[in-house]
Design a protein that fits this description.
By secondary structure, this protein is α/β, with parallel strands linked by helices. The chain contains ten helices and seven strands. Helix 4 packs parallel to helix 7 and helix 7 runs antiparallel to helix 8. The radius of gyration is 18 Å and the shape is globular. One of its GO terms (biological process) is methylation. This is Class I SAM-dependent methyltransferase.
Length: 253
C-alpha cells in the first residue's frame, strides 16, 4: 500500500533515493522496482532485517532491473550518515510525526538532498488524526508513537522555512481512516474485535483486488478523510545551475 504517488513523484533508473524512516519498506521496494539505487534507512534493526531479506528475494525473483541497487542503513534521523547533496530524491513517509525535534530532521533532509532534488513527505492528516487522539489515549502515548498532529499548512511552512519549495499535495487512504477510528474506539491493541477484524478484511481485499467501486469511493473520500496527506517539495537548484523541478510536480494538487 503506497502513499506516495509515483506518477507525481517520478523516479528514474539509476537515481539515488533515500527512504528515510522506511519501516517495513513499502516505498523502498517500489523504488527498487523502478530501478533506483535505494537506501532504506531506519532506527529499528528488526524492520531493517526484514527489508534486507525482501530486497534479496526481489533480486532473486527478477523483480528489479539488473542495474538497480538496494541497501539498508540503521541510524538516527537527526544525524543522517550521508554526505551533503548525496541523494537525488528522498521519501519520508509517516515518520516526522514520531520525531520530537522535527525541524532538525527536516534540516538533515535538506542537507543530504542535492540542489534541484525532490522530497516527498507524508504525515497523518489533521482531521482523521484528531479523531484518533480523541478516541484513544493509547493511540498517541505509546512509546515511539505520534508526538504531534500536523496541519498541511504547518508542515509546508516548516519545510519552506529551511528553504524547500512546495510543489503540490494530495490526500491518500480515505478508506483507512474509519478503520483506525474503530481501532481507537475498541482499543488499539484489541485485534480480536469483530468489527475491526471485518473492516480489516475489507481493506486487505481492496488492496489485493483494487475493484473499481472502492477506487471511486476512495477518490471521493481522500480529500475529506484521507488518512495521510502527501506534500511534494524541491530543494532549490544551486546558483547558476539549470536544474529545476520536473514538470509533473507543478501539476500536483
Amino acid at each position: 500500500m503506497l502513499t506516495v504517488d509515483f506518477q507525481r513523484f517520478r523516479v528514474l533508473p539509476g537515481e539515488r533515493v533515500l527512504d528515510m524512516g522506511c519501516g517495513a519498506g513499502r516505498h523502498a521496494f517500489e523504488l527498487y522496482r523502478r530501478g533506483a539505487d535505494v537506501v532504506a534507512f531506519d532506527l529499528d534493526e528488526d524492520e531493517l532485517a526484514g527489508v534486507e531479506k525482501m530486497f534479496g528475494a526481489m533480486r532473486l525473483e527478477g523483480e528489479v532491473p539488473e542495474e538497480a541497487s538496494a541497501a539498508t542503513v540503521r541510524g538516527d534521523a537527526l544525524d543522517l550518515p550521508f554526505p551533503d547533496g548525496h541523494f537525488d530524491k528522498i521519501v519520508a513517509s509517516e515518520v516526522l510525526e514520531h520525531i520530537p525535534d522535527d525541524m532538525r530532521a527536516m534540516r538533515e533532509l535538506m542537507r543530504v538532498l542535492r540542489p534541484g532534488g525532490r522530497l516527498a513527505v507524508t504525515v497523518p492528516s489533521w482531521l482523521p488524526e484528531r479523531v484518533c487522539w480523541a478516541l484513544s489515549e493509547d493511540y498517541h502515548t505509546a512509546p515511539g508513537g505520534h508526538v504531534r498532529i500536523y496541519t498541511r499548512a504547518e508542515l509546508e511552512a516548516k519545510l519552506k522555512s529551511i528553504g524547500f519549495e512546495v510543489n503540490g499535495h494530495h490526500h491518500a487512504h480515505g478508506l483507512h481512516a474509519p478503520y483506525w477510528w474503530i481501532k481507537c474506539a475498541v482499543g488499539v491493541n484489541n485485534d480480536g474485535n469483530p468489527l475491526a477484524k471485518a473492516y480489516h478484511r475489507i481493506l486487505v481485499w481492496d488492496i489485493m483486488k483494487r475493484p473499481l467501486a472502492t477506487r471511486v469511493a476512495e477518490d471521493v473520500l481522500n480529500p475529506l478523510i484521507g488518512k495521510s496527506v502527501v506534500v511534494y517539495f524541491t530543494k532549490p537548484a544551486a546558483a547558476g545551475s539549470s536544474a529545476s523541478a520536473p514538470k509533473e510536480t507543478a501539476d500536483a494538487v
